[in-house]
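Escalation from tier 1.

The customer reports that the assembly of two entities below gives different C-alpha cells on two consecutive runs. Tier 1 could not reproduce it. I'm attaching the input and our single run for tier 2 to review.
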Amino acid sequence: MNRYLMNTFRFLGLLALQVLVLNYIRINGYINPYVYILYIMLLPFGIKGWMLLAAGFVMGYSVDLFMGTPGLHTGATVLMAFMRPTIIRMSTGAQESENLFEPSLSKMGMRWFFSYSLWLVIIHHLALFFLESFSIAQIGNTLLRTFFSVIFTQIFILLLMLMFKSGSKKTERLA
Amino acid sequence: MYNLLRFLQKFNFLLLFLVLEVVAVMMLAKSHTYQRSKIINSSSSVAGYFFTFRANFADYFTLQHTNDLLVKENAELRRKLEYYRQFEYPIDTLHSKTDFEYIPARVISNTVHLRNNYIVINKGSRHGITKDMGIMSSEGVAGIITGVSENYSIAISLLHKYANISIMFKHTDQLANVTWSGPDFRVGNIVDIPTYVNMKHGDTLLTSGNSLIFPEGIIVGTIDEPIESAAGDMNAATMLFATDFNKLKSVFVIKNNNKFELNSLNNLRPDE
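Tier 1 run:
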C-alpha cells in the first residue's frame, strides 16, 4: 500500500480508537491508556525532522480537541516526537535501521521494539501528567499515575503490534 | 545574515520543537480556568458533535434496558392519570399553564469517578433551558444545570461537592439534606435529620419542594444505614441513590414556570 495512505489510515484509526473507545476505559478509576502515540512511533525512520514534529503536533491537538484539554496532549506528543531520533540512536547498536523503512515488531524484533516504545511512552506520559497537574507539590501522586498508565499503555501498544503484525513467520525474532 | 541562516538551518529541528512546545503550553495556560474550559469545550460544536455521534452508537447497547424503564414509567403515569381523573374540573384556558414543565434531553457526556462530576446534555438556551434548573432521570433526581450554551448545557450531578438538595421522608414529611462525599457513585449521605425522626433501612426519600428547582415528591433514593449521632443533636444516614449515575442516558430538565414570581416574593421579606 502507498506509504502516505497507510500513515493516514493509521492516524485516523488510532485517533478514533483513542477518543471513541479507550477514553472510556478507566482502569481503577483514574488510569487511561493513551495508545494514539503509536502513530508517532511507527513513522518512517527517514522522516524529515519538521514533519515528525508537525505530525506530533497535529496528532496531539486532535486528541486535545476531543478531550477538551487544549495544549495538554499537544505538548506531550511534540516532546515525544522531538525525543524520537535520540531514542532511535540510543537503541540501535549498528546502523541497521537505516536500511529499513519504518520501525516494526517483525523487522526489529521484540526486544528492540519493547525498549524503543517503553522509552517513548515514559517520556510522553511524564510530560502529560506533569502538564496536567502543573505542580511539583503533588509529585508523588503524579509519578504514581504515570507509572500505572505507562504499564497499561505499553501493554495496549504491544497487543496492537502483535495483532497487526506484518510479514511472515520467518522474519520473527522474538527475544 | 549568512551566519544567521546557517544557524537556523543547523538547529531547525530544535527551534521548531521549541516553537511548537511554546504554542502548546500557551494553549494550556489560556484554558486554565478549569471550569470554564470544561463548559466551552464539552459544549462547543465540534466536540459536541462527536460526543453526540458516539452517544448515538453507545445508545443501541442499552436500548433494551431503556425500553423496560419507559414501559415502567408509562405504567406509573397511567396509574397517576387515573387517580387525578377523579379531581377533574373544567379546564381554565386562560391560566392553563402548569407549575412545572419537563423538557426531555439526552446525556452526551457524564462522569461518576471524579470528586466533582458533571453531566452534559444536548439541549441548551435554544430549547428554553436556563441556569439553576433541575435534572431528573426516569429513576429519580440527577443534577442541577450550571451553564448553558446555545445547543448544550452542563450540570453538576448529585455527585458533586456543591450538590446539596433538600429532601423529606416519604412517610413522615420530615426534612433533611443530601450531600455526596464519594467515592461510590451509588451511595450518598443524608445530614441534618432531627433525632426524633424514626428511620430504617429502605425508607423512601423524596424531594421536599422547598427549593424552586425541584417539585415536591420526586424520588431521590432510599435509606441504606441510619447513623445515630453520638452528641445527640442531628442524626445522619447513608442512602442509595434511586438514579444509576453510571448509565444516565435520557433525562428531563425541570422548568419552574413560577420561578420569577416566587423569587420576587422572597425579596419582599422584611430585613432582619
